[in-house]
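[User] At your convenience, examine this fold.
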Amino acid sequence: MLSISVKEFLFWKKTQLSKGGDPQSLALLLDSVGGISTSDLNSLNINPKENLYLKKNLDILESIWEDHLFKSHPIQYLCGEAFWRNLKLKVTSKVLIPRPETELIVDIVFKIFGKKSQKLFFAELGTGSGAISIALALKYPLWYGIATDIDQDALEIATENYVNSSKQSNLKFYCGHWWTPLESFKGKIDLAISNPPYIPKDTYEKLPKEVKNFEPRIALLGGDDGLKHIREIIQKAPLFLKEKGWLILENHFDQGEQVKQLLLKYKFSSIEIVNDLSGIGRFTIGRYK
């Protein structure tokens, strides 16, 4: 551990933020690489004459920060971690960085099911880092879940995140394309969730370089109109959901009405487009019959 005065560190921190970036990203770097937690950061001004201890020296932290600022390299990949809800998750370029807006999926589930403690079977299609399924498994320890992903590397990361986040055993990970790994669970699923690739091809080509150049294309691109994977998920959902089972989908900001029509086509009811914190119709939910 490297000792440094709080005064010197605070000056360094102010200098780094003057170059650009946001305090949350720098806080992630300091936590993951520097070994200084957010609570430690918040208390520094109280005792400015004391010393603090770093896992890495300031030059190393500064080089990582500048890589983030000047090469558009996502700070989460540079740190190997992302904060999501109350989880600290391992992330690499094999998985999409979990977004703050996606956190609302857990709140939607809570709104539908409340604090129900009875056993319930859920599935997440395309789990990536495992964020959604892990959050649900922790929130509902009596539920049993299966999280799928087409990429074995992603599943290894998700599994590691689950082991690091929980001592429970109510979540399993299966490799395969959307519903394919769930063939033996037809008609048994109470709740299915997916945040699939939904970016239209034209939009994908115009994405910021921190997304397009670093995050996995397979987790973003949803075909010409962005609905390729959503169509497939909805079309096959009736085979796997229980009667009265729920489907929750994240979609592009302007796809809610189209997703709603697809759900109606396949006999879903109680359909609702749910806004994110920016007032954008980010999620579309429905109940099978």
Summary: The longest strand covers residues 241-250.
